Amino acid sequence: MNKMPPAAPAYVLVAYPISKGFREKLGRITGPGAVYLLLGDLRSKGIRGMVAFLRSMGKNSALYIPLEDKQSEGLLPLLLVVAAFSSLREVFVLRPDVPPEAIGTGRTISAVLGVAANSLLGVAALLRCWCSVSWLGMRSRMPLALPRDVHEILYVNANLWFGVRAGGSVGHVAGVVNALADAGYGVDLASANTQAMLRESVRQALLKGPKTFGSPQELNLLRYNFLVLKQLKRLATARRYRFLYQRMSVMNYVGVVLSRYWHVPMVLEYNGSEIWIAKNWGRSLRFSNIGLAIEDVCLRHAHRVVVVSRVLADELVERGIERDRIVCYPNGVDPAHYGPELVPPEEVVELRKRYGIPTDATTIAFVGTFGQWHGAPVLAAAIKQLVDGDRKWLEENQIRFAMIGDGAKMKEVRELIGSPEYSPWLVFTGLVPQPDTVKYLAAADILVSPHVANTDGSRFFGSPTKLFEYMAMAKGIVASDLDQIGEVLSSGIRIWEGVGRKAVGRTSATAVLTRPGDIGDLIAGMKLLVEQPDLRRRLGLNARAELLRRYTWRHHVACILEALGEETSEESANACIAEHAR
């Protein structure tokens, strides 16, 4: 039975950041001032801390649980269990384009029982996975043999993600899949989410997750192995595959099982250890031992392991992976989706108008999912320093800053620059769907990539897709001189060397580089490009030319195909050789 919710104040419980459009719809229901609670933030408090916080919210507010897509329905019982610990009397579920659904006591009790039952199923999956992974760990990798009469590829993205509409992973998956399709292969993409920005020829298969999630979360990931295997074995009854491509997913080894079951080669995309990422950029895994064992099994059985940086390649060698199985090439961009010519000038004017940005303002933008490594708080600190101490410069140059996206570090950013005194200079757009980011980049004059070093002292192993999207837009870039970022922009102007004022004479530079985490460098770099528009235009054109020469997804995929013994163009082969020689 539906019931109209009470007036604000309200709380909104979410498992992941939601899109700007859905958030605006929620705002019309919850009223202004709704407090968003991210499930991950609550979990980080520990059980006692989380319960204490939930009990402190008072009884006169309502709690809303938004579900933006059907795939996230399995999370509802778990979210209802969390809501049951709160002191709030009314709980509502919000879905797109339907009235709020009031949740009664019976529904909550059913959710508690469902979570308990599925937690037991997760324990059973844990034991089953240990047996399977132990068996695979004792088996040798199959010989590499491509079936020459087959031209179909299965791409498996077995991450149990929901609501992922923006970020590097979205662009990466679409980029690789599209480049494989452009190379003449028929491609099936199996994923938990509907993937945006795909060629029409790509066939999508939506993988279903558990109907109800258990606790802890990692047990759901282990259960997902068997759910995915069942679905993909059915998919393969209709066709054969030349090879299998799997994006490495936490706690998932379906690629190994399917490769052996179908007797086809497996290409594994390795973007870093999920165990390390969880420990350093999120929350340590409770079952990290089996997570590491699954990573080792995937690496052991993969016929080729694709990495996007030499740091990752070196890490794999240290883990015992032979170099001749490693394919190393940076991330890239699809010029069909990113380029200054793709956004008409009138759309740029309209977008600026929507956010109250004057047409003649100089706009400095950051786009991202506000992860640990993105350095968004460094940019926020620079904005704060400029507004607090150099408003005259901001006014004279009509500066506006745009923070595009949402994620883990947004809370820290808002603590720095979220108060009203900064709003005349600053726009927060919220999470923008990946296909729309090209419009936001086109509406900016300067793009900032303030990535920071790893907190544990290890080398930065990333290859930010953000960087290549920036380069494709032919805009002035200010970026951290951090491992691969500095290598890709190696001809850039290093602002700390004091050459800024003479830089306009440089004809080959592609960006302005700063020392990672250095707020003074970042401010100096932004000021340089604001005050020298001719320079930023020249840097932008140089960056785009360099990108088209060697950093498209076509170059990236050609290197993978060459490593498998497939035919590639001479141009792509030369780019691959040149990258390996760097």
List keywords for this structure.
582 residues, alpha/beta, 7-stranded parallel sheet, 22 helices, 19 strands
Describe the 3D structure.
The chain has 582 residues and is of the alpha/beta class. The chain is built from 22 helices and 19 strands. Strands 8-7-6-9-10-11-12 form a 7-stranded parallel β-sheet, with helices on both faces. Strands 15-14-13-16-17-19-18 form a 7-stranded parallel β-sheet, sandwiched between helices. It has a 5-stranded mixed β-sheet with strand order 2-1-3-4-5. Strand 6 (152-157), helix 6 and strand 7 form a beta-alpha-beta unit. The radius of gyration is 24 Å and the shape is globular. The model has no long low-confidence stretch (mean pLDDT 91).
Short synopsis of the structure:
With 582 residues, this protein is an alpha/beta fold.
User: What does the average pLDDT come to?
Assistant: 91
Terminal CA distance: 64 Å
Model regions low in confidence, pLDDT < 50 over at least 5 residues: none
**Number of β-strand runs:** 19
Helical stretch tally = 22
Secondary structural class = alpha/beta
Going across the biggest sheet, name each strand in turn.
Answer: 8-7-6-9-10-11-12
- Helix proportion: 40-55%
Overall spatial form: globular
Biggest sheet architecture: 7 strands, parallel
Strand content: 5-15%
Using the CA coordinates, give the radius of gyration: 24 Å
Set down the secondary structure blueprint.
Layout: E1 10-14, H1 20-30, E2 35-38, H2 39-43, H3 46-55, E3 62-66, H4 76-84, E4 90-94, E5 101-102, H5 105-137, E6 152-157, H6 168-182, E7 186-191, E8 203-206, H7 217-235, E9 243-247, H8 254-262, E10 266-269, H9 274-281, H10 288-301, E11 304-307, H11 310-318, E12 326-328, H12 345-354, E13 362-368, H13 376-389, H14 391-396, E14 399-405, H15 410-417, E15 426-430, H16 437-442, E16 446-449, H17 465-472, E17 476-480, H18 484-488, E18 493-494, E19 512-514, H19 519-531, H20 533-550, H21 553-563, H22 570-581
Helix pairs in contact: 4-5, 5-7, 5-10, 6-21, 13-15, 13-19, 21-22
